[in-house]
Model the fold of this input.
Amino acid sequence: MSLPRIGVQRLLQLVFLGFLFVAEAQPLIDTDLWWHLANGRYILAHGIPSVDVYSHTAVGHPWVVHEWLADVTFYGVYQGLGIAGLVLLSAVVITLAGWMVYRLLRRGGLGTNSAVVMGVVLMLATTPSWGARPQVINFLFAGILCDRLLAYRERPGRALYMLVPFFLLWANLHSGYVVGLGLLAVFLAGEFLQTVSARLRGGRDEAVARLGRRDVRRLAIVLVAGVLAGFATPGGYRTVLFPFGTLASSPIQGILAEWASPDFHTWQARLLLLSILVLVAGCAGWVRLARMPDLTLVAWCLAGLTLALTSVRHVPIYAVAAAPLLGVAGSNLLAGVGFKPRPPRRPTPAMATANLAILAALSLGAVFFVGTRVSGPAIDRAVAAVEPVAATDYLLTHHLPGELYNDYSYGGWLIWKAQPDYPVYIDGRTEVYGDATFNEYLITNQLNDGWQEPLDRHGVRTVMIGNGDRLKFLLEAKGWRLEYQDDLARIYTRDHV
Done:
């Protein structure tokens, strides 16, 4: 059996994917991970909840468990492989998402080498959204959807209907599937505009692929079926509406960093800016040549860019939605400076052997490097650096009085470790608490006038906050006792409300 001949371009593709896997395969512990695991555990034991079961401030509030299948999947992986398994799972998802970005860049016209370079730029711009969280599924699925829609435009057929079960799966994994519906709707609108434009121009610019009426009708059928897929979830129609409620929440949009606009002082946002500059410079070629642009790709890009400039969380959607147009823009720029991509050559035996040796050496190094980062001690250190592990142990072993007030970032961990003994005051499920309860938490957290009133009203007798939280000064001034302290957290108690 002969070994495969790996050329330079194939080696570059594999190194690109390996780089993404290694970059993501580290214990980036998101504080929401824990309540997702706890919810997977709860669902398997009791079924899917429809109201809050984890807090004492929002108990009984309606809860759309829009990520139920992802929660169960995460918990199953955790049961089998621990946190290391979740880290590796997220690394696989990000790597596959990177492959879809690369494919979309290639569909736009970039050569292998250029697509890898631009793929690195786009993927690094999305790093703030990486980590073991269900939302990374949206990145991968949006990439798959865009790739399949462009493939359909090149070769229409009934295979498009496979997107119906695809949307059904996506809707049960995460309500972010609504983004997929949006991308499909924009694609449909773009194709309609392409057709109108072609008629106005007398059928010119045939280089831009267009769909016929029957093909567009298939797209419309899939879009309607995709919307209905949201109704085939435990949350029903509320799954479809859920993302719009999040976007309309002032506390979520104003307080949580991932929902803020990109900060262009960060290197990730500067890479986003670089991609925008490539788009502007490359697409200027259409104007210079008086050519009609591909309106579908333009519409996708504008939709993704709008989302990205609104929220860091949506930069991955921009990465896939803008990739095809970036491929066009990049190829325009390269052509403008006289660069012409060379077709791949079959490598000589010596070159193939050298490339295989390089790939083997890099693979061994990657396995060793990733292994050290997902080892038990490494993960324990990563968890202890962000979660109140020792403080929670003290809370449980000393049976401190409840109700509990906790820092927002500790809520997920306490749901995972301290349920049902200590229902939380707040956690990352901000949509469950509503603006009123979340604003109430902020009154205390931000030391506003009347900061203790919410604590009194909810019967709070135990407070767990960060060691550096300024709330400690007000608590001590009001006679709260310091029960526990370490480098990360503090616990205060009082005898009565």
In short: The mean pLDDT is 90. The chain is about 65% helix and 5% strand. The longest strand covers residues 462-466. Residues 212 and 391 are 64 Å apart (CA to CA).
